[in-house]
Design brief:
The complex is a heterodimer of chains A (435) and B (262). By secondary structure, chain A is of the alpha/beta class. Chain A has a single domain, classed as Luciferase-like domain (TIM Barrel), CATH 3.20.20. Chain A is 37% helix and 14% strand. Chain A has 13 helices and eleven strands. In chain A, helix 1 runs parallel beside helix 13, helix 2 packs parallel to helix 3 and helix 12 packs across helix 13. The longest helix of chain A is centred in the C-terminal third of the chain and has 26 residues. In chain B, 35% of the residues lie in helices and 19% in strands. Chain B is α/β, with parallel strands linked by helices and 262 residues long. In chain B, strand 3, helix 1 and strand 4 form a beta-alpha-beta unit. The radius of gyration of chain B is 16 Å and the shape is globular. An eight-stranded mixed sheet of chain B has the order 1-2-4-3-5-6-7-8, sandwiched between helices. In chain B, helix 2 crosses helix 3. Chain B has one domain: Alpha/Beta hydrolase fold, catalytic domain (Rossmann fold, 3-Layer(aba) Sandwich). The chains are: A alpha/beta (435), B alpha/beta (262). Chains A and B meet through loops of A and helix 6 of B.
């Protein structure tokens, strides 16, 4: 079992009027950066890096970073900078980028160089992951939406070629053209770092990940549709002549642990009280479907069972929340996506270790993932909230999770090779519980 | 928008291995109309008005409506080249070419690459040039309703034509069309820096039309076209926004007939 830590690194500005459950909803691409305070940004970047260093101390196997653009809900616009810093200031933990937004790179060869440098500086601890991005990312860097999927695939092929083929060679593709591919940098891990593919909605992407035997990371989707998507992955694997196993399944979910049930409720409620985030159920803000899904970005007929409308909304109750919020004149919805409802449905898992562990057990037993990420310290949670939870995760949750993983035989992608389904040579055992 | 007695027919032509669907009605000299970026919803009153004096031919541009998508096309000029072959095949000698909005962009490109194929040119609220003043409204950042509404002199007029609830098949057409438009005109959006420098070579008699209430393509663009094309006249239509063809169909048809006759 691989256990990782994730936070979306929100820009938490309590003075903004956009912050907290009493603040105004943020509309996608609807807030001017004239409100940005770089002093606050500086504090937050450093805080989030410090928390990741502590996550390593507490025994996590990986720290996960993601990337979004032109939005307060995620400060990871240049995710490779954060990854490069972590490569140097951490010692053991995997640096998991989920992921670089491939189609918005006009020069993916540069990405290949950056990732190779990160892998070398970290001495082989990079896990790379690639996404197509939402409409927001395509707008922010002006990538032509109808070619998003084509550019994703070609950029992937180019980066792999740059890492694995001896140069110099020429690349004359549909979307990328180079007369001289010969980067003076190679990945520390050979033939290349592991590639994990995160996602929520695109059937194309699940199929593609399964065809490449890349682990697929479902991002905080509800349990049943998540299982359905894994089933689809399994089916594609079978069609491609191999059996998908736990090392191919990954799941990100919200877990916050605290010293008492009261403190847990106080802190976990803050998931839905930060700057609006279309990916955080209960505080999605104003979702604009035409931006979320730019023309040609997603084939209207190739959606996972998680999605019933053409936006991603339904996958996380977002559309329900948005419709409710609109209907009730902007009031926070009281039902489906409320904190209470999410806690009840285990969309948010929170409490003391005693109450949290059985819920994690249920997730592991039901989904059988080989790798998981706890999504914590987000929304309006402050540094103290994040650190209390990280400490308890190290002391109790991670060791208990490893025991349960053993019991359910959940092997991660660093235990069993996703390309061959053969056991991998193990380095020294990962210390549990912040030892 | 059919009437009890259908006054038009629907046919298919082949261009560069692609099937192109087109509507045809009326009689007289040929007038080919290139539709807006939002596609063609059917035989609208403007075509009927124009058909009093012309054989009106309205292709669905390649990649729009029922016309096959040229997957290789990356710019309006690619569509202009296809349309120049279509015009030669279907419209005979010296037709009038009418371009509406994005269709005007394509018509201007067609004239720039192959003016011998057409007898006269009409550009209505045409995109294609970077405005000296103002910015072209970016349809990619707004909803369909917002974008269409901006094209009318006011919201009431928009609703008069499309209703309070837009018909599902119309919404579908807009959705589908936007995807093709995004394939052809993304950056720069709705203009081509390689078009203005060659317009001075286009000798085709040209009528440049724009609505006075234009909020999609700045009026500056109409003035720039009129200044750059050696044989152009400019007409500003009162009471219309970007969609002069929807808002003032009779007036526009009369302007075109007068232009072709002169």
């Amino acid at each position: 079992m691989f256990i990782g830590y994730f936070t979306e690194r929100p820009y938490q500005d309590k003075e903004s009027g956009y912050f907290g459950s009493t603040g105004r909803d943020i509309a996608d691409l609807g807030i001017s950066n004239s409100e940005y305070n770089p002093r606050l940004g500086s504090e937050l970047y450093n805080r989030y890096l410090d928390e990741k260093v502590y996550a390593e101390e507490m025994g996590f196997d990986g720290v996960m970073l993601n990337e979004h653009h032109s939005t307060p809900f995620c400060m990871g616009g240049v995710v490779n900078v954060e990854a490069a810093i972590l490569a140097r200031i951490t010692q053991r933990v995997k640096i998991v980028i989920l992921g670089n937004v491939l189609p918005i790179w006009d020069d993916p060869l540069w990405l290949a160089e950056e990732l190779a440098e990160i892998d070398m500086i970290s001495r082989g601890r990079l896990v790379t992951g690639w996404v197509r991005g939402t409409g927001r990312e395509s707008v922010a860097h002006n990538a032509q939406a109808p070619f998003n999927w084509e550019r994703f695939q070609e950029a992937h092929d180019l980066v792999l070629a740059a890492w694995t083929r001896s140069g110099p060679f020429r690349w004359e593709g549909e979307h990328y053209n180079y007369r001289y591919v010969n980067p003076w940098a190679k990945t520390y891990q050979q033939p290349h770092p592991q590639i994990w593919i995160p996602g929520v909605m695109s059937r194309n992407t699940v199929k593609w990940a399964a065809e490449h035997r890349y682990p697929y990371v479902m991002l905080a989707t509800e349990l049943e549709p998540t299982k359905n998507s894994y089933d689809y992955y399994d089916q594609v694997a079978e069609e491609n002549g191999y059996e998908a196993q736990t090392q191919h399944r990954s799941y990100l979910f919200k877990v916050h642990v605290d010293e008492t049930e009261e403190l847990a409720d106080q802190a976990a409620r803050k998931y839905v009280e930060g700057p609006s985030n279309p990916f955080l159920e209960g505080n999605q803000g104003i979702v604009r479907p035409y931006l979320q899904n730019l023309p040609g970005m997603t084939s209207r007929t190739n959606l996972l069972p998680t999605v019933t409308s053409f936006t991603q909304s339904t996958a996380r109750g977002r559309q329900v929340a948005h419709e409710q919020a609109t209907k009730d004149g902007g009031q926070a919805p009281e039902d489906y996506s409320s904190y209470e409802s999410q806690k009840e449905r285990m969309s948010i898992i929170t409490g003391t270790p005693k109450t949290v562990i059985p819920k994690i057990r249920h997730v592991l037993e039901y989904l059988r993932p080989g790798s998981i990420f706890f999504w914590d310290g987000d929304g309006a949670m402050d540094h103290d909230d994040a650190m209390r939870s990280l400490r308890l995760m190290g002391e109790e949750i991670i060791p208990a999770t490893r025991e349960m993983a053993k019991e359910f035989d959940l092997k991660g992608p660093f235990e069993v090779d996703t390309r061959t389904n053969e056991p991998m040579a193990q380095e020294e055992a990962v210390p549990a519980g912040g030892q | 928008m059919t009437t009890a007695e259908q006054t038009w027919t629907e046919s298919t032509a082949e261009v560069a291995g692609l099937s192109v669907r087109y509507l045809q009605g009326g009689s007289g000299p040929a007038a080919v109309v290139l539709h807006h970026s939002t596609g063609n919803i059917g035989w609208v009153p403007f075509y009927e008005a124009l058909a009093q004096n012309f054989t009106v031919i309205v292709p669905a541009l390649p990649g729009y409506g029922q016309s096959e998508r040229p997957v290789w096309a990356r710019a309006p000029r690619d569509i202009a080249i296809l349309m120049s072959h279509f015009v030669a095949r279907v419209a005979g000698e010296s037709p009038t070419l009418v371009g509406l909005g994005f269709g005007g962009f394509i018509a201007a490109e067609l004239a720039a690459v192959n003016q011998d194929r057409i007898g006269s040119l009409v550009l209505v609220g045409a995109a294609g040039l970077q405005p000296d003043e103002g910015e072209i409204l970016d349809q990619m950042l707004v909803s369909y309703g917002e974008y269409m509404t901006a094209g009318f002199r006011d919201e009431a007029h928009y609703q008069e034509i499309f209703g309070e609830e837009v018909a599902p098949e119309v919404r579908e057409l807009w959705d589908f069309s936007r995807e093709m438009t995004a394939r052809l005109s993304w950056k720069p959006y709705m203009f081509n820096r390689r078009l203005a420098p060659v317009l001075g070579e286009v000798q085709t008699p040209t009528l440049v039309v724009a609505g006075r209430e234009e909020r999609v393509i700045p009026l500056a663009c109409a003035r720039q076209y009129a200044a750059a094309l050696p044989n152009a006249t400019l007409e500003i239509v009162d009471g219309a926004g970007h969609y002069v063809d929807y808002e003032e169909p009779e007036a526009l048809a009369a302007l075109i007939a007068a232009h072709a006759a002169s």
